[in-house]
User: Which sequence fits this backbone?
């Protein structure tokens, strides 16, 4: 079969080995690396190897204790090898090698980013994002670190890895040595450029010496720092050439220090936003280079390769979202790919909360041994699902995959529920991909979808009569509705609910106060500022697409990145095109946006600050007056000169049908927002749907009523 992505699936010789395609699974620490036995990690990688990843890079593994990100983080050293880690890693490499895929171990020394008191760095300068002040490495400490990197690589080779990736970017230890920002040493590892790059070069040489010529060495080099005090472009190029001489076979791109206040992977970052800097670097070095970040479709991956921007592409989160990304692309089934929407909610946010990474759109990720969709043997349950939002659709797909016969009822003419509203928020366009995936998958697994059909006992009975069989299970996934407020001002025609605004049922006002600053309040503010200032952003499929060039230019301008391939400095303020006032208000006196995602909340706040949205907390709502909307803050009355109030003050579950079906003696299950509506939570909704489908088993016949 001729693949639509011919370059993506052309093998490439990297020196010590040949990869079967150009599709790398990028490094992600998932939290599975810390488990005993590494069985879950092996199962997780095996699935991706089966799914077509040509080369897998593990999450960062520390070469010694001080290099660990947290006290219990994974380490591969003589000590941990003696405690059995080597055999555990062998389980991982064997699992991947069973499927004609390669795997390299990333060695990551966190340096001053470590979250423990024994952290080390070139100099005793604390990072702005960690609570611990590092100790400056002594001369002996540096020699030991080099030895530990070499040993870790040698152990990785013994465990069956095909090579290592040396983590030299994102502001970790080796990067800290290279940059004047963090290196104030006066010995032979600090000061001049030659001295600052000495440690990474000696690390690479040590690995080469310990592991030989036939062991792949990838170096993740920072091509864009997005902070002050890093290497100049000329120095970066020079550093790359020295790394080549030291023995590096492949360069992976690193974008931004962790402490940079510029988004680099979240959903508002345009697809393939940074590939031009990889292209620029590729022209300067002779080894293959890898492009990274926000490459989430095979089309865009192929366009990067075909336009000569890189030799390979690394996709990290897209492999969480769909373990079969590679096979589906190869077989020209890209429309079946469950696309990563860049939300970070179940991957990076989990890691920051010390939980294991998974994926919002694919809750099976990282839980391959825990959530198993086993085919049902014997009589297949008949299931009616009420509600075509994320919970109902996810359940339906997973249940049908197990062999259940599923009817899905949605009263609106389209599927998606809140996802269908979310995709209208500028910067959340990727949600459309999930809706496309839902549609394709529902059809493929044979779910009978009844759109524009409001479910009731009578409607379901008609289907039962037609098919001459009763439903065994009823799943209520009817979601939420905005909580209606009793206050007089909320009954005024100038007060509207967010759902009506986003669905286009009411027009946005010229000057607007948003009541409620949770996730939906932020979305509405973004919608309003963008509605007035910009257009919604189309999803692009090629790096040469003029729409992408425009998105990139706008994004770079907003965040103060001085241009593709230039060294980005600190973010500058966006010159707001918005001319009209938007207020974002909340009753609680906490900082606005406190409850937003850990890794994206700060971006969403900054975006609104850039657009001059005025945020106020500790607000009491007094009501509409002659000059606008009256509020009280810290005991002082104020009038906001607005012509519309958008209410985003929480939501309530819709589960009216639960009782109806219970009374008719059906087995009823309630999932998603219909079960708990305290917050809008697509992650919980999808996970509940898939978990219920995985656990509903051959209990057909046990027709007693009740709900779970
Ligand atoms: C949960 C998570 C963990 C990560 N851990 C690492 C890591 O250990 N080492 C590393 O070099 N990059 C790490 N990254 C960054 C990814 O390699 C990649 O650069 C980033 O996710 C952007 O690429 P993507 O858009 O294809 O996901 C991590 C990313 C995520 C989401
Ligand atoms: S949780 Fe969101 S960002 Fe992370 S892999 Fe899944 S879709 Fe992508």
Assistant:
């Amino acid at each position: 079969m001729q693949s639509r992505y011919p370059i993506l699936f052309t093998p490439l010789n990297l020196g010590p080995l040949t990869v079967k395609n150009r599709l790398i699974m990028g490094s992600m620490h998932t939290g599975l690396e810390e488990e005993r036995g590494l069985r879950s990690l092996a199962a997780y990688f095996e699935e991706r190897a089966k799914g077509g990843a040509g080369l897998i890079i593990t999450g960062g593994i520390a070469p010694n204790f001080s290099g660990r990100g947290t006290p219990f983080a994974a380490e591969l050293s003589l000590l941990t090898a003696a405690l059995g880690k080597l055999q555990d890693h062998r389980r991982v490499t064997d699992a991947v090698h069973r499927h004609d895929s390669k795997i390299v171990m990333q060695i990551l020394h966190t340096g001053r980013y470590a979250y423990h008191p024994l952290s080390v760095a070139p100099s005793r300068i604390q990072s702005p994002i960690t609570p611990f002040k590092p100790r400056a490495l002594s001369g002996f400490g540096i020699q030991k670190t080099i030895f530990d990197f070499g040993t870790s690589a040698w152990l990785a080779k013994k465990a069956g890895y095909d090579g290592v990736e040396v983590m030299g970017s994102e502001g970790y230890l080796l990067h800290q040595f290279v940059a004047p920002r963090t290196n104030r040493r006066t010995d032979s590892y600090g000061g001049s450029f030659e001295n600052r790059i000495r440690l990474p070069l000696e690390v690479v040489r040590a690995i080469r010496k310990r592991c030989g010529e036939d062991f792949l060495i990838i170096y993740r080099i920072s091509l864009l720092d997005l902070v002050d005090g890093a290497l100049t472009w000329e120095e970066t190029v020079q550093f790359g050439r020295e790394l080549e001489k030291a023995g590096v076979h492949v360069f992976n791109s690193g974008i931004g220090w962790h402490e940079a206040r510029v988004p680099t992977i979240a959903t508002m970052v345009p697809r393939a936003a940074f590939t031009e800097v990889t292209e620029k670097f590729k022209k300067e070095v002779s080894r293959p280079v890898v492009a990274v970040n926000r490459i989430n479709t095979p089309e865009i991956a192929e366009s990067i390769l075909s336009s000569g921007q890189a030799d390979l592409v690394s996709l990290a989160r897209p492999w969480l979202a769909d373990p079969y990304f590679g096979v589906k692309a190869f077989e020209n089934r890209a429309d079946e790919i469950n696309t990563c929407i860049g939300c970070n909610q179940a991957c990076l946010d989990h890691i920051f909360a010390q939980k294991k990474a998974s994926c919002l759109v694919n809750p099976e990720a990282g839980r391959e041994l825990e959530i198993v969709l086993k085919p049902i043997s014997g009589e297949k349950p008949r299931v009616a699902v009420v509600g075509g939002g994320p919970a109902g659709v996810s359940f339906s797909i997973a249940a049908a995959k197990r062999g259940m016969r599923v009817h899905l009822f949605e009263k609106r003419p389209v599927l998606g529920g809140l996802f269908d509203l979310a995709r209208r928020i500028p910067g959340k366009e990727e949600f459309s991909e999930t809706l496309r995936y839902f549609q394709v998958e529902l059809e493929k697994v044979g779910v009978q979808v009844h759109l524009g059909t409001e479910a009731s006992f009578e409607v379901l009975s008609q289907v039962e009569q037609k098919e001459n069989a009763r439903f065994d299970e009823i799943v209520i996934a009817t979601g939420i509705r905005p909580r209606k407020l009793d206050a007089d001002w909320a009954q005024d025609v100038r007060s509207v609910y967010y759902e009506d605004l986003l669905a286009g049922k009411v027009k946005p006002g010229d000057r607007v106060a948003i009541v409620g600053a949770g996730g939906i309040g932020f979305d509405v503010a973004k919608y309003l500022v963008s509605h007035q200032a910009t257009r919604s952003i189309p999803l692009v499929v090629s790096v040469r697409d003029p729409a992408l060039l425009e998105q990139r230019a706008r994004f770079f301008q907003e965040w103060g990145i001085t241009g593709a391939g230039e060294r980005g400095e600190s973010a500058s303020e966006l010159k707001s095109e918005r001319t009209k006032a938007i207020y974002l208000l909340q009753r609680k006196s906490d900082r606005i946006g406190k409850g937003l995602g850990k890794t994206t909340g700060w971006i969403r706040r900054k975006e609104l600050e850039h657009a001059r949205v005025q945020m106020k907390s500790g607000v009491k709502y007094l009501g509409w007056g002659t000059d606008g909307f009256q509020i009280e803050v810290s005991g002082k009355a104020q009038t906001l000169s607005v012509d519309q109030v958008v209410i985003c003050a929480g939501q309530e579950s819709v589960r009216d049908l639960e009782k109806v079906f219970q009374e008719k003696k059906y087995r009823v299950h309630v999932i998603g927002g219909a079960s708990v509506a305290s917050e809008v939570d697509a992650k919980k909704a999808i996970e509940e749907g898939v978990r219920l489908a995985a656990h509903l088993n051959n209990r057909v016949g046990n027709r007693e009523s009740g709900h779970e």
Q: What stands out?
A: The chain has a mean pLDDT of 93.
